[in-house]
Amino acid sequence: MSLTAxxxxxxxxxxxxxxxxxxxxxxxxxxxxxPELTARFSDKLLHGVEYAVLGVLLCRxxxxxxxxxRLCVVLxxxxxxxxxxxxxxxxxxxxxRNSDVLDWITDTVGGALGSILYRWLAALIRWx
Length: 128
Prior knowledge:
The protein is mostly helical. It has one domain. It has five helices and no strands. The chain has helices at 11-28, 35-40, 43-64, 69-91, 101-125. Helix 3 (43-64) packs across helix 5 (101-125). The radius of gyration is 15 Å and the shape is elongated. It starts with 10 loop residues before the first helix and ends with a helix.
């Protein structure tokens, strides 16, 4: 069994971001995902929040691998951005959905904000 820096199993680090990415993929496969939510909030706000959560989860997993903080944040942003780009491409094949470069930019900004938030909270709480 592969262990994390904290001594726990590695899958505990990576299961949350992988499961969350699968949820994003599932929602992106629907022609009208969560209509009650999308009717009340801006598409860009929803993308930003969605990818901020992904950024937090990715940064947490990367930090658990004992990667330096700065690199964790950068890698989490890059991974969130690449996933956002693939998600936008995927949406181009879904009926009543489209690919939007502004959504991808919002995904990237959300991933960056989530990663930075995780780093800031870690410093505030004094996580290693």
